[in-house]
Amino acid sequence: MTPGADPSTFSGRTGLTFPRRAAVGAAFVLIVIAAAYFARGGADAEPLPGPPLREVAKKQGMELGTAVRGDALERNRAYRQIAAAQFSTVTPENDMKWFAIEPERGDFDFGPADDIVERAREANQKVRGHTLVWHAQLPGWVKELGAKDLRQATREHIHAVMGHYDEDVGVWDVVNEPVSDDGELRRSVFMRRLGPGYIADAFRTARAADADAKLYLNEIGAEGINAKSNRLYELVRRLKAQGVPIDGVGFQAHANLDGLPGDFVANMRRFKALGLDIAITEADVGLPVPADPGELQAQARIYREIVRSCRAVDCRSLTFWGFTDGRSWISETQAGMGAATLLDEALRPKPAFSAVQQALGG
Ligand code: XIL
Fold first, then answer.
1. Closest approach atom of ligand 1 to CA 134
2. Quick one: 78 exposed, middle or buried, by C-beta within 10 A (0-12, 13-18, 19+)?
């Protein structure tokens, strides 16, 4: 046998011996498989028990939603699959906020929010637009404007964003969190520079920007009947009386183990009686972490109450502020708190998941 003819040492044109070539080939195949796996965003979601939440909600004539994060939808296949399978609406958690969408004046970055809208279309989901006029997550330049420029820039922002999503977003949180806990209008940059009229102005501008969209005022911590919700009630009652185009009020419903106030339904009813649609827009139930089984059961009962409260007022939609403890603002922003959503960090159902399913009638 001539040197080189032995197949086990055959080196051919690559100069590699056969065992080495086999190893390189195998490594190459593995790299291709791994690349494909990560390009798809990892493993498939484990199936969740029972009928999808969006299906059971639909039977009640209710939309069921979640906040979503563009980066997670992009990179995490299981997250993407569950968002699509379980929910009929999505609210971009951060990607439509002013800092994200107009980081410099007149310089719009719609890309990340467009991706969410595209995914929603593929999953046959509606998109709730969040949010146009809010004191938080503003780009620095907005806070530096004087009254005249701020009024103008706010109108331009509303027109540009609503105009861009005219076809895709049917509901907007036009003004977010305008009342402070002490029952006064919040001393936001808008309030300080423009006075209380900024609220009516935002709604009128929104109506001019999109004649068909449902225009919401969204509020935090106004679930019970208290100084804050009384002020909110007075505010929207006057807006309605003045013919300002407001269609609905969103109650965020961020809760903890204290549960929601016993008069939540009564409170929502008085807003509804003004002729407004009601939505629960950001529900979650934060727990002290690590949470024990008893706390997870208590959380499930609170989630059930949230669903029942929404049904009791024939709410338009119920949105959770995220669906996995691995991606929830509670664990990210509140020290010692977390575990606030329906699924754990590995996307496994917690007691709250089946509680919601049952409360929806599934
Ligand atoms: C939160 C997001 O969940 C976080 O990721 C972000 O860091 C801060 O904002 N009320 C609202 C939401 O209207 O936009 C907020 O979302 C939570 C409170």
1. 13
2. middle
CA 298 and chain centroid, separation: 24
Q: What is the pTM of this model?
A: 0.91
Please report the pLDDT score of residue 37 as a whole number: 67
If you average pLDDT over every residue of the chain, what do you get?
94
Alpha helices in 210-247 (DSSP H): 227-241
Assign 318 a pLDDT band (cuts: 50, 70, 90). very high
Q: Return d(Cα 130, Cα 166) in angstroms, integer.
A: 14
Q: What's the length of the chain?
A: 362
Supply the residues annotated as catalytic.
177, 282
Helix ranges, 5-101 (H): 18-40, 53-59, 70-75, 77-86, 98-101
Q: Which helix (H) or strand (E) holds 90?
A: strand 89-92
Distance, in Å, from the CA atom of 22 to the CA atom of 287, rounded to the nearest integer, reads: 53
Q: Measured between alpha carbons, how far is 274 from 41 in angstroms, rounded to an integer? A: 46
Q: Which two tokens stand for residue 41?
A: 């965003």
H/E stretch holding 214: strand 214-219
Report, at the CATH architecture level, how domain 16-359 is classified. Alpha-Beta Barrel (3.20)
Q: Whose CA is nearest to atom 10 of ligand 1?
A: 220
**Which atom from ligand 1 is nearest to the alpha carbon of 177?**
13
DSSP-assigned states of every residue in 47-63: PPSSS-HHHHHHHTT-E
